[in-house]
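Ops channel
N.P.: pipeline sanity check, posting one input/output pair.
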């Protein structure tokens, strides 16, 4: 495990400790470790500053409807199956374990499960009133902040002239790894742009609907990108075009 990954895990653990979410013994160990005192104070100060700077906003109607639809979705009907002899059941279980291990080794970074994980993160952020860890419109502030908390370097571009203003960033968790996410504003809407290790992402943007949210995915020679938002698809396409142009300009 790289030093960046270790640091990311430590930050996540300290965040959990600040929220009182760790088991009692682990919570006591974190609080008793003197080396955690300074990082804990910095995290607490950042969270307080973000809360003070964040404006309470009403979630857009489209997002409210998407969340309501998820809550109202009926549970899948339970199916019953005939009894299976014990020997056959054991064989099937062993086969399932082998197949599962193989799939886990072959799956590229960020998939499967990244779509649902990022959609859930977007909805959680919207319902909590922002979901921003570092609030700033300055990419030179947001980019290094994310770089110290996620192992992947971040491509942060200023898109204010295109109608998409950078408002901050956060660290999402994808496949149990910290992933840097930039947050842009477009009117009253938010666009979450997450950057992931390169693997399996199409070179040209692909658009899909995930849990009532529009999502775009693409990649370049350095990393994969996922943009999630409750804005209409044409607006998301315009954002993706502007972001790709901004990244290309920086790498010239």
């Amino acid at each position: 495990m790289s030093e960046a990954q270790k640091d990311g895990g430590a930050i996540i653990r300290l965040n959990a400790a600040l929220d009182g979410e760790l088991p009692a013994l682990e919570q006591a160990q974190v609080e008793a470790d003197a080396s955690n005192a300074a990082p804990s104070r910095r995290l607490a100060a950042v969270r307080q500053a973000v809360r003070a700077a964040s404006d309470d906003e009403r979630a857009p109607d489209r997002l409210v409807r998407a969340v309501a639809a998820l809550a109202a979705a009926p549970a899948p009907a339970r199916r019953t199956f005939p009894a299976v002899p014990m020997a056959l059941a054991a064989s099937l279980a062993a086969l399932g374990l082998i197949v599962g291990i193989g799939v886990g080794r072959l799956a590229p970074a960020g998939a499967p499960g990244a779509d649902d994980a990022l959609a859930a993160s977007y909805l959680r952020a919207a319902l909590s009133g922002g979901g921003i860890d570092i609030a700033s419109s300055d990419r030179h502030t947001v980019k290094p902040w994310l770089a110290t908390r996620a192992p992947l370097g971040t491509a942060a571009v200023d898109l204010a002239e295109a109608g998409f203003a950078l408002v901050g960033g956060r660290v999402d968790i994808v496949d149990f790894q910290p992933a840097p996410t930039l947050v842009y504003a477009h009117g009253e809407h938010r666009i979450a742009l997450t950057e992931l290790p390169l693997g399996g992402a199409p070179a040209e943007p692909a658009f899909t609907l995930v849990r009532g949210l529009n999502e775009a995915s693409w990649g370049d020679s350095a990393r994969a990108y996922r943009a999630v938002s409750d804005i209409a698809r044409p607006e998301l396409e315009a954002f993706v075009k502007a972001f790709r142009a901004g990244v290309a300009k920086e790498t010239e």
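N.P.: looks fine end to end. Helices lie at 3-18, 24-32, 37-53, 61-72, 86-106, 114-128, 139-147, 233-250.
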